[in-house]
Amino acid sequence: MGVGEMFGSEFLGTVMMIAIGVMVCGSRSLPKTGAYRNDWINVSLGWGLAVFVGVYVAWPTGAHLNPAVTLARVIQHWSDSSVTLNGISVHDGGIAVTMGNVAIYLTAQFLGAFVGACVGFMAMRRHFAEPANPDVTLTVFCTKPAVASPLWNVVTESIGTAILVIWITVNGGTPTQVGPLAIAMVVTVLTMALGGISGAALNPARDFCPRLAYQLLPIAGKGDADWGYAWVPFVGPLIGSALGVCIPLAFGLMP
């Protein structure tokens, strides 16, 4: 697979996922939408299905869409040199775990998350021109904890991401090897469980780049982007990624 195809797969999949996620959150949070103040299940299912769409779009590269997933693949490769980025053997067209290929994945994910946030904003541009609580408009784009406690918020994000990565890791060795719909269900239930606690970022790019978009986009009455908290949904998922690989390794559950 060429560099352009590799970049395009992860980039487009991430754009689709983030754009849909922003639109789901915006529909629930912005006062004049028809879905205003919808149930939290609406957001959880919406984000799960956003992942479903992104995974299908980015299937050629293994649909990471998340630096935490890419990091997990790198750690797996350290313990088993046959592991590739897209789960296919190198002889059958697998993408080798190299610094160059990892850099392409990460660049595509971060740029895709930023562009996706902008696309979501454009789809709801008229609603963002209406007055709204600045804290509410911020959470359309990125996460905000219900109770601000950075250490415990990191713990929350680490645990959530570890569960996600353990599932991704162990699922590859099960007889069914269920795909995009199953991962959508996992994200849905994790959002139900932790969305009301820390926002359930589970993905450094998903939080950091939309937060940057929020700061740069012309949103009426917006407040601070809360950069003092931004490190939490960045660091927490990376810790969870490492745990999500090391735990199955410790129990001999690697496929």
Automatic annotation (TrEMBL):
Gene3D superfamilies: Glycerol uptake facilitator protein. The keyword 4Fe-4S does not apply. InterPro entries: Aquaporin-like, MIP, MIP/Aquaporin, MIP_CS. It is found in: Membrane. Pfam families: MIP. The keyword Transferase does not apply. PROSITE patterns: MIP. The chain crosses the membrane at residues 6-27, 39-59, 102-123, 151-170, 182-202, 229-251. SUPFAM superfamilies: Aquaporin-like (SSF81338). Keywords: Membrane, Transmembrane, Transmembrane helix, Transport. It is a multi-pass membrane protein. Belongs to the MIP/aquaporin (TC 1.A.8) family. This is Aquaporin family protein. It comes from Bifidobacterium colobi.
